[in-house]
Amino acid sequence: NPTTSNFSQTEDEARQSEATALRPRPSAATSVVLSGGDPLTVFGTNLFNGAFSSARPAPPSNYQIQPGDKLSVRIYGAVNSDAVQTVDAEGRVFVQGVGPVAVGGVQASQVQSRIRTALGQVFTDAVSVYVDVLQGGTLGIFVTGDVNRPGRYVGAPGDSVLYFLDQAGGIDASRGSFRNIQVLRRGQNVVDYDLYPFILNGNLEPFRFQDGDTILVGPRGPMIGVTGEARNAFAFEAPPGASQITGRDLLTLARPESDASGVAVITIRGSASHESARRMCSEVVSSPLVKCAIHG
Question: How far apart are CA 193 and CA 171, in angstroms?
Answer without folding.
Answer: 13
